[in-house]
Amino acid sequence: MNGPASRRTRLLGWAGALVAVVVLVGLGARTTPTSGTSEDRVYALAGQMKCLQCLGESVAGSQADIAVKMRTEIRAQMRKGRTDDEILSSFADTYGQRVLLNPSGDGVASLVWVIPVVIAGLGTVGLALAFARWRRQRNDAGTTEVTDEDRALVDAALADGANGG
Fold first, then answer.
1. Which residues does residue 50 pair with via DSSP β-bridges, in sequence order?
2. Does pTM surpass 0.90?
3. pLDDT value for 129
């Protein structure tokens, strides 16, 4: 199955994957408001902060007293015209970096962003090399030369089988 049908199938697979990636990037690229005092902006900012009283919950999803107070503080800072970065920095200064769900990209914290990308890249390269080696081995297996000695062994086995051996 190495003909035009196989190539067409492969191309359709890659085209489908490309369409899926474009759709997912488009969905992920929706923007949240970065100015004003809308509830969408409050919850977008609150979603970037960890509830310090809850386990594994953001300030946006928590109804704990501290989360409610933090959302109120976000609204107050928004009314003062502060930017998202200023608001997040204010909370990090008050509660420490542990309050932020998205670590900063500075210093050692940048490793949180870099290491997964490096691992994914190395994994992709490793898979590509493994598939190339498997394909080469499969192709090499089909090109084995038959020697006169091999033919003689097969003929002897067939003759032996025909004689009831």
1. 58
2. no
3. 95
